[in-house]
Amino acid sequence: MKIYHYHPDTGIYLGEGEADKCPVSGVNLIPAFATSEAPPAAGENQYAAFENGAWVAKNVQQPGPDHEPTPAEAAIIKRAAINAERNRREQLGFTYLDKTFDSDQTSVIRINAAVNTAVAAILSEGSFTVTWTCADNTTIDLDAQHLLALAAALAAHSDGLHQTARTLKAAVDAALDAGKTAAEIEALPTWTE
Known about the structure:
Blueprint: E1 2-6, E2 13-18, E3 20-21, E4 28-29, E5 34-35, E6 46-51, E7 54-59, H1 71-90, E8 94-96, E9 99-101, H2 105-123, E10 129-133, E11 139-143, H3 144-177, H4 182-186
Antiparallel strand pairs: 1-2, 1-5, 3-4, 6-7, 8-9, 10-11
Domain DUF4376: 77-177
Pfam family, one: DUF4376
Organism: Anaeroselena agilis
């Protein structure tokens, strides 16, 4: 069962996870500061927060001459910037067999469709080869096994970016928990190489 974590003080949505099961009863265990209720989709300049037993979408007050962000608002803005940079990098392509492959949304769909065809060929003990166009417009012939490895390379590319983003957002959360100022939170890195 999916559970959704929130910050113990601010209620700000932190991410999702899987509930552990009680080894005796098999009942799903929901830890403190988590719920089985999914948060609402937050629009631009919004964030989800768990307040009084329910999720709410809240507007982020933008910094300006009449408003300096609070540390919690600075954390929301920083987390959104980290997510945006992760998403941007996720679509810049990835390397496999010394070639750069596209990883935008359409390319990922094409990779998955080719992998499904490759799996069907493997299961039916047939052969399968596709000539794939790389990001630089050169081509490479990929058999079924290479297509499976291509999908694994794409997954590794995405996972590496998500791990970096999780680490950076954990630093934001730690700064907020430690009582850092909005300026100190804003100064945290949005990305690392």
